[in-house]
Amino acid sequence: MVADGRSVHVVDDLSAGRAIQVPAEADLHRLDVRHASDLDALIGRVRPTAIFHLAAQADVRRALAQPAFDAEVNVLGTIAVLEAARKVGARVLFASTGGAGYGEYPELPVPSPETAETRPLSHYGMSKMAAEGYGAVYGRLYGTEWVALRLGNVYGPRQDPHGEAGVVAIFCGRMLDGERPRVFGDGRQTRDYVYVADVVRAFQAAEEGPAGEVVNVGAGREVSVLDLIEGLGFRGEPDFAPARPGELMRSALDVRKAEALWGWRASTSLAEGLRATAAAVAAARAAPGSRPPGAFASA
How high is the pLDDT of residue 163? Predict the structure, then answer.
């Protein structure tokens, strides 16, 4: 958005983020998405045409341990965004979840894309599906323009291997530390890994495309954890740990709707994306004054 010369305002409570990640050309507002009155006042003053709603509690384990907190952020926070957007007529582009929303399906990619039954295995997946439902309600009641992007496992540069980042950055960090990648379960579980630059293009397309849509955004293929480790160049034995509750065994998204609706497909190969991510993590590690562990999490 900044590169396009647009006026950009970023809302973040910095509980996991870092202010230095925000470009100088954008305005950062330290604000919790759950604080509806403050958010309403800010959006009423700025009057954006579009709101990219990526604020979330995205940790499946924390959602299982603190389901009420998960719902506060992901459901009540989304309602606060929708209420503020309704008053200024802004379009809301919502970062939803693919695999965690659909749950386990024996046939992959999930058949009947975007209309298949959602059956989450975690509170996180359920809260995201509930947020989607509120978006649809605001569309029907008030005509609020709304698009839900059901994302695969997003990875890429700027993810922090010590924060709530995805597994790719975490593996890169452990390998740079001379440690073995830690695998929960047998490593045969699969995900649909999609590169961050491709996801950015999808959000840009959603801003210009038709409203009221739910769209899968992924690479459309299964990749196992073991394949991921091999793709990163690790040749030893991973550090295996017990499987964690609430996590899927297999996931992949059918992305034909995104192509039909927006002309969008993921264009970054897994090999290319892994190389870029590993290089970025290594460069960040080598930079003077590199951040302490846990300093920030990826969006």
Answer: 58
Distance CA 122, CA 114 (A): 19
Specify whether 193 is catalytic. no
Q: CATH top-level class for 9-286?
A: alpha beta
pLDDT at 237: 95
> Which of 102, 124, 193, 195 does the annotation list as catalytic?
124
Question: What's residue 190's pLDDT?
Answer: 96
Domain boundaries defined on the chain: 9-286
Sign of CA dihedral 41, 42, 45, 51: negative
Question: What per-residue confidence (pLDDT) applies to 42?
Answer: 98
Give the global pTM: 0.93
**Residue ranges of the chain whose pLDDT lies below 50:** 292-299
Of 96, 120, 101, whose CA–CA distance to 199 is shortest? 96
* Residues 163, 220 contacting (CB under 8 angstroms): no
At residue 242, the 3 state secondary structure works out as coil
Burial of 211 (0-12, 13-18, 19+ CB in 10 A): middle
Q: Cα–Cα distance between 207 and 146 in angstroms, integer?
A: 9
